[in-house]
Design a protein that fits this description.
Elements lengths: L5 E12 L2 E12 L3 E5 L6 H9 L6 E6 L8 H4 L2 E4 L11 H11 L5 H10 L13 H13 L5 E5 L7 H18 L2 E5 L3 H7 L2 E6 L2 E7 H7 E7 L10 E9 L2 E8 L9 E4 L2 H16 L2
Parallel strand pairs: 3-7, 3-8, 5-6, 6-7
Antiparallel strand pairs: 1-2, 1-4, 8-9, 10-12, 10-13, 11-12
Helix pairs in contact: 4-5, 5-6
Length: 292
Amino acid sequence: MSLSELAVHARGLTKRYGRRPALVDCDLDVPRGRVVGLVGPNGAGKSTLLNLACGLTTPTAGTLRVLGSPPAANAAHLARVGFVAQDTPVYAALSVADHLRMGAKLNPTWDPALAARRIARVGLDPGQRAGRLSGGQRAQLALTVAVAKRPDLLILDEPAAALDPLARDGFLRDLMEVVTELGATAILSSHLLGDVARACDHLVVLGGSRVQVAGDVADLLTRHHRLVGPRDERDRLPAGVEAVATRHTGAHIDAVVRVDGPPPCGPWRVTPVGLEDLVLSYLTRAAGEVNR
């Protein structure tokens, strides 16, 4: 895939804070037009990756291209990226209307009709101070400010983590609708796999400061299976089958595997793998590698 077809392209991307590695030697290609779920445990490097993509920090090593250019290359490039940080920060003393006026002044591609339409749809009072809004309303305001600049890439760092289920449902529904309207690429960092399954068609799993697996969700689920079979068959998996995570249950072994080709036959019972099992298998493997 050419660089022009990628929203994010990283090779050997590394970020260290002193001696502590946040990301190590990461290779990643995110195609344009996808809604990407970025998942991993706390400390896996999700926020670091998103901050690097926004140009808020710089790599220690490696290369990173966002929409074909270095992050935050210039004002025009900044206008193409929308960012909603953790806890959906807004300015407590400013009104909803103040936020929209500020967005219009700072962003040359600002779409006032889109901003006004979104504010009306989610029921925000333009005169209300942001500090008096509920968590769900603040999230909707932050999303509106990000999308009204009509970005090509929308980056959201745990935007719905603190919301109650009803507010989170509304936020995700509006997010999917506005991304479709914009025709943008979106990267959604979340530790809630249900949100990722609902909203995303592309997956990136970070664990142990590295990219463990990435790809279109449908393709990943097609290429992964659960195998249950005799324990002594563990070391006799056929060619093209990679064990991601295994556990022993008496005389049997239960393995999640990645398969390049048709599922294996023989002594194995083969069943599909869901998104949660797939993610947990890679994170389990990553945790084992870190603890060695």
